[in-house]
Design goal:
alpha+beta; five-stranded antiparallel sheet; 5 strands; about 40% strand; flat
């Protein structure tokens, strides 16, 4: 077997193992967040909630990129205040010298204020982390 073939197979094996490990980490995070939501009395949507994601489009972070995904949504609402915590990922073009795409992953918190009988307005969005 040629050394290049061995290097190529090693690369494929390492990629597969790291992809599987990332998948297991994501499943564990979803399980843990589900438990946190239950403990806090929040609603939990592991695959996100499309209407919620669309309602955030006025924020800069949600207005660009493609292949957008919001998941692990924890949501709670009281009389006129709602709180949402979620994971969010999108893909965007890199600046010209770096050509290509980059996927950004972040976790966010949205604070929602709703006056009785009026549409929901999002008063604040905080980016917790970005990778």
């Amino acid at each position: 077997m040629d050394p290049i073939d061995i290097v190529f197979l090693l690369f494929i094996l390492i990629s597969a193992v790291s992809g599987y490990y990332a998948h297991l980490r994501e499943k564990k995070r979803t399980r843990e967040l589900s438990q946190v939501a239950a403990d806090l009395g929040f609603d939990f949507f592991p695959e996100g909630y499309p209407a919620f994601a669309e309602s955030l489009s006025d924020f800069h972070l949600f207005s660009h990129g493609h292949s957008k995904r919001l998941w692990n949504l924890l949501y709670a609402k009281s009389r006129n205040l709602a709180m949402a915590c979620f994971d969010y990922k999108y893909t965007a073009h890199r600046p010209i010298p770096l050509k290509g795409f980059h996927t950004y992953t972040s976790a966010g918190v949205a604070e929602v204020l709703q006056q009785l009988g009026e549409p929901i307005s999002y008063t604040q969005f905080s980016l917790i982390s970005c990778q």
